[in-house]
Amino acid sequence: MTSSCALLCLRCRSFLCSKTGATTWQYTTQVRHCTTVTSVATKIPNGFSFFRGNHRTNQARQRWKQQMLSYSDLTARNLATEAKEDKFTEELSRTDVVAYKSPLLPIRDAVSLKEIQMPLDLDAAAEFSALEEISDEEAVSISVPVAIPPASTSLGDYVDKSETLSKLVQLGVNLWKLEQRPNVGSMLLKLDFNKDVAPRLLFLKEIGVEDSRFGYIITHNPFILTESLENLQTRVNYLKSKKFSSETVASMVSRAPYLLNFSVKRLDNRLGFYQQHLNLGASNTRNIVARLPRLLCSSLEPVKENLKVCELEFGFKENEIQHIVIAIPKVLTANKRKLTQIFDFVHNTMKLPHHLITKFPQVLNTKYLRVKERHLFLEYLGKAQYDPALPNYISLDRLVSLPDETFCTDLALATLEDFYLFQKTL
């Protein structure tokens, strides 16, 4: 009996959300009351039990049968009602909004389909599963809050969301170059323009850097935005203590963006290296560094290798190397293969001695193809004469520095068309 009544209570609980929920609840209460009455021994005034255990009176049995018959009829009516409601819900699924009126709830103008299809289990959480499939219309209607994308392969996707990136673009910074470098994009996104970027831009402006160079400096050295202002000022003060003028420091920083990222100790070691290995004075050392400031930033290995090549392979003397470096500092950082190719052609093909190359070191800093084409054209015309002591002398400086038209009219005494036709024969 107890198990049967418990089952009835569970069945009645599911009817709470239907139209006949109130009636079912009332009937369930009656059933529970009946169970209580029939399961407890009723006593008469004289102290004897009216019945004990599972023995029941005929009256109680008849009352129980009537209640069970009434419950069966009520259950049948509820099942019929639910079948009609299921059919009605299927018809409503073809439309988006339906007017639904309930005698137990206030009348609303419209009820969405989602509200009708909500689960009737009151204990379950009213949430949709993450694995539940939804229609294309529902997917399109989902609104996503505007936020910075969690991951991207391009900084361009963040420009509209990040004030720092948008301001850097206005300054002329090439984000497509920075995004190719590891960890630079995430570093820039973490920077605050007013707290991190603006103070360093003001510092660069105070030391004399032009506004038009900000984009170039940050594009090549974004890490200057993470350097402390104290360190930046200390390095500028060191350069000025070595008698570099304010204009020279500003020019060096503009052309060598990494200059201020190096410590004072490293800058001092680099200046000492060039002064000792080239046997130069302080003035000449400042001169070559001011003209080529990347000497303080780049690796010293290519410099050491080129100095050995000039001395051991080319055969220049120490004073000749000094003269070449003072005139053309780029020789120190030039590509070894290119430098060797040009020297071999000038010295062995054009037959120029070391002292003449030292006098006009610009020939070592020019393009190999330009020297070759012009020399062969002059040789074809019979005018390849580079000795200053002989007539019809042609200066090596003019040979490599003049434009094609001036070279043809002043040195080759020919037309530009003749020179172009000769180039096609090479």
Description:
With 426 residues, this protein is mainly alpha-helical. 58% of the residues lie in helices and 1% in strands. The protein is built from 22 helices and two strands. It has helices at 2-13, 21-39, 58-92, 113-116, 136-141, 163-170, 175-178, 184-190, 193-206, 214-220, 229-241, 246-255, 264-277, 282-291, 301-313, 318-327, 336-349, 354-359, 368-381, 396-401, 404-412, 416-425; strands at 97-98, 111-112. It has a two-stranded antiparallel ribbon with strand order 1-2. It starts with a helix and ends with a helix.
List keywords for this structure.
426 residues, mainly alpha, two-stranded antiparallel ribbon
What form results from the Cα inertia axes? elongated
Number of helices: 22
Helix content: 55-70%
| Average pLDDT for all residues | 77
Assembly type: single chain
The portion of residues forming beta strands comes to under 5%
From the N-terminal CA to the C-terminal CA, the straight-line distance is 114 Å
Q: Supply the helix-strand structural class.
A: mainly alpha
Order of helices and strands: HHHEEHHHHHHHHHHHHHHHHHHH
